[in-house]
Design goal:
mainly alpha, 7 helices, 2 strands
Length: about 240
DNA sequence: TAGGCCATCTGGTCCT
DNA sequence: AGGACCAGATGGCCTA
């Protein structure tokens, strides 16, 4: 009897954990009810997402879409990378070109990601490692910005800092999606990403699916104030750029 | 069929 | 003592 009660508690606990993970799936890019990210890929993508947004904050510049996606996909498995690219209506080859003029890449071989993607101790391919014997270009090679050396910048697993996101300011507005009550990163909502933004990041959500400016704070929501200050900062940055 | 992913059970450990 | 948390084991399902 005691064992059965313990089993039931453990089941509930794991269900709670899975609910939380599902919540995480909904707030990271590329949410799809039909094609769910695995637990591990959800965590990896979330890590990349946090890192990418932190880099935006740190650099004070708007990233271009391509660089942002590249940062998101670092260390993800190939299927997940394809999924993210598909969500963003990008051809994976756009950021994993088939032909490379980089002498380091000639003749095929493989390349381990630097920076956020590679987590020591995790399985190598397909995680954190890309075989580009067919000419695929490693993600870290497509960065063109200067290196960051500021130790206050978030780093992944103590790994060397990756270059910041590019600064062309091509973030898109998700206002329509937010107004429609849909989560902006939903599978079907990536068209606007490819167009010129009006107020970049305006539509980015708070924790519970509301754009910051739409919210009326309840006592519970006030605990999210730091996040909203962060979003305000981001908005200011993007409006300036 | 092998490998990945997942849910569940289980026993151990720690905390209240 | 009872609950929370954790990690290992196991079996089912799915896909390449």
């Amino acid at each position: 009897m005691r064992r059965m009660k313990a089993n039931a508690r453990e089941r509930n606990r794991m269900h709670g954990l899975n609910d939380a993970l599902e919540g995480l799936r909904r707030v990271v890019p590329c949410y799809s009810k039909t094609q769910k990210l695995s637990k591990i890929e959800t965590l990896r993508l979330a890590k990349n997402y946090i890192w990418a947004l932190s880099e935006v904050l740190h650099s004070g510049k708007a990233p271009d879409l391509l660089s942002f996606v590249q940062a998101l996909c670092k260390g993800l498995s190939q299927p997940t990378t394809n999924l993210v690219a598909g969500c963003l209506q990008l051809n994976p080859r756009t950021f994993l070109p088939e032909q490379s003029s980089d002498p380091h890449l000639q003749g095929g071989g493989s390349y381990s990601f630097q920076g956020p993607g590679l987590t020591p101790g995790l399985p190598s391919p397909p995680y954190g490692h890309l075989d580009f014997s067919h000419g695929a270009k490693p993600l870290s090679y497509v960065y063109d910005g200067p290196l960051l050396t500021d130790c206050s910048s978030p780093a992944f697993d103590g790994a060397p800092l990756s270059p910041p996101l590019s600064v062309n300011g091509n973030f898109s507005s998700f206002k329509q999606e937010v107004a429609a009550g849909d989560f902006p990163f939903g599978l079907q909502h990536y068209g606007p990403l490819l167009y010129a933004p009006t107020h970049p990041l305006d539509g980015l959500m708070g924790f519970d699916g509301h754009a910051p400016h739409e919210r009326n704070h309840t006592p519970r929501e006030r605990s999210h104030a730091p996040h909203e200050r962060c979003m305000t900062t981001l908005n200011a940055i993007f409006h300036e750029s």
